[in-house]
Queue: 4 jobs
Job 1
Amino acid sequence: MKTGTRLFVGGLALALAVTAFAPLFGVNALIYNMSLTDEPVATNFLVIRSATFATLAFFSVNFLRRKRPLSSVAPMLVFCNFTVLFGSVLMIQRSQYDVIPWLALAMIAGVAYFLFRENRAETSVIFRDGW
């Protein structure tokens, strides 16, 4: 892999990771007007944006490590895991204890568990005759 490609993807992964984790520290990077602000933003928007950017950063780092997903459900699993992580942390930070968002987060965690089992089953099929 060329050095320019590695630098570009590495810089992109760093920018995505910083933007994804910034709301956990009270910093909101507004992409559309390129500014940092303290204005309130809907929690569900921050959760989805952070989970998306963290997923992209995760797979960018894996690309640099030359690790490819072993199954087709791996990207969905990673996104669900990051959604549960950012959703629970941001809702606790913002003291949002309504039942419906927590129920939705629990359902996403259930989907993540299902995808984890499917990912493990697909991976074992791929490597069944490998050794």
Note: The chain has one domain: 3-126.
Job 2
Amino acid sequence: MTALTGTRRGLAAGSSLFLATLLLALAACRPAGDAAIGKRVEVEWKERQLLFVGDARSGNARIFHMRAAPLLIGEMRAPDRGAVRDLRIDRERQRVWILGEAAVYVHDARTWSLIRRVAAPAAAAERLDLDADGAPLLLGGDGRRLARIEPARFAVETFRLAGGA
């Protein structure tokens, strides 16, 4: 202890060293680059005060109620979905369509349970959109239509490029 201040110099130095070591350890545990962050898809359903957040790393979509503050109220999972690439809400049919890495998944918007996995050319699709009839459209990175899923029978109609074989 020093006579004038009554403090211990060694304690301050030791605390600073511990804090610096802790920060370095935490930084080392965090993945680096854009892959660490991953793409997060958010879709808001204002009429029901819900926010759907899809995770590109886990394949789960979480549901938050947005009345006062975001409150986690549910989660949509599928056994073989490893990523959520895009998400759309069909308000008329009360469905949530999720574009995974290998298929499109449709969930009930009231119970959040999985209705069906639709095998579609999802690997080539970058976005999901709904047409005027509520049918999901799989879109490429350039915006061209790759496929359309008929919402009543879940039949997949693929589109070919002009001049393609």
Note: Residues 112 and 123 are 24 Å apart (CA to CA).
Job 3
Amino acid sequence: MRKAIILFFLLLPATCLVMAQQSTRMAITFEDFESWMKTLTPMGYPFTETGRNGEEYLATFLKEMKMVGITLSPLSSFDDYKKFKGVTPYEFKGHRAVLIGQQNFWNLTVELKNLNCCIQVTTVYMEARQADLEKIVVESGALDKKPR
């Protein structure tokens, strides 16, 4: 009995670490993300490529040197907006969202707690309104997407 108790306390930290890592992992694989992105044409822009940047999944849609990017990042990345002055989260269809934009760069980040991640829609070298970026999120199906 004593050995069992000692073993339990020796294994407890490792078990907690594994559980913590699983709870912070995005609930979508890169392969699923890639298949999903190939079905989209945000604002009429054709799919160009996907890639990874650390834990983030990236998709690019490019036309005439203008770009729409869609990124999935860990849920904890939502708070990155705090690095920018004057940016305030708002509620978008039951999800926390934040819009950051100026001239040639616009980014909408929306929390997707059901997938344990955030979706970010970014436009480069083009003017995009908040409504345009929100429409891309809605049309992507991200708000209704279920983990597998």
Note: The domain at 26-144 is CATH 3.40.1000 (Protein Transport Mog1p; Chain A).
Job 4
Amino acid sequence: MQELTGKEVEVRTMDISYRGILVEIGERDIHHLQAETGWIVVPVEKVVEIKAV
């Protein structure tokens, strides 16, 4: 996943998809996904898929 850092990605959960620049991935959270609407933090246990856009 570290190869996606700095790239535009789509992060999918069971409920919603987020799109933005992946700044950092932590052990518990996807940290600092920079989206048009601001900064987003998604708990890792809710992530279904992360892919480059």
Note: The chain has a mean pLDDT of 88.
